Amino acid sequence: MELTLHQKIESAGHKVYGSVNRMWPEKLPILEKDEAERAYKRLIAKFGKKKVWSEYSNKWITEKKSVMRRRKRGTKTWKTRVRKCWLSLNGDTNSLSKGWRRLVHDVSHYVYYFRFPNNSQDHNIAQAKIEQEMAQFVIDSGWLDGKLKSKPKPKPTKDEKQTSKTKNLIKLIRSWERKETTAKTYIRKYRLKLKRLRPTMRLEDLII
Ligand SMILES: [Zn+2]
Questions:
Q1: Ligand 1: distance of its center to the CA of 98 in Å?
Q2: What mean pLDDT is predicted for residues 184-192?
Q3: Domain segments of the chain: what residues?
Q4: How far is the CA of 108 from the centre of ligand 1 (A)?
Q5: pLDDT at 113
Q6: CA of 150 relative to ligand 1 center, distance in Å
Q7: Ligand 1 geometric centre to CA of 46 (Å)
Q8: Between these two residues, 184 and 19, which has the higher pLDDT value?
Q9: Cα of 52 from ligand 1 centre, angstroms
Q10: Once rounded to an integer, what is the mean pLDDT over residues 167-192?
């Protein structure tokens, strides 16, 4: 049976997905949050680039995709968005729905939308190719061997602990000294205002 062009493209896409699936080793390691965040940022930095024509500078420029961030509740700090499904902290680390495979799949979609914003088709050969390149990059970079894991911090010595406590106390003292100065300034200012308003009145006479 003759395949239509669309079917041909689709089946080529499926072939790439098949090869992506076979690229991953049998047993994938767990993926922790710090590691997932680093992997996400580096994949976006590496693959999230495209050439666009700039009317302004009249030449082709490279546009870079940024990582998604969200504000930490109740604070002013922004945090990189790490999806829960990217983590696989135990047992079933091989499934498509979480861990390394899910992270690479999701990030390849983000990059695909960025590079081809007008293409509405979710899964096609271009997206599959990006996913394939990314999976290869992850494997080649040694990320599955723990290259992106956080190094355990060495325990601070007694001296270091003391120094950091001292620094903190000095910081607190300075901060309250500044407040003391401000308070004194305001007290002087309001006393003066009161004096102008009621020249003969003394603060001690005041009954509230
Ligand atoms: Zn998908």
A1: 12
A2: 94
A3: 5-145, 158-205
A4: 8
A5: 93
A6: 29
A7: 20
A8: 184
A9: 25
A10: 95
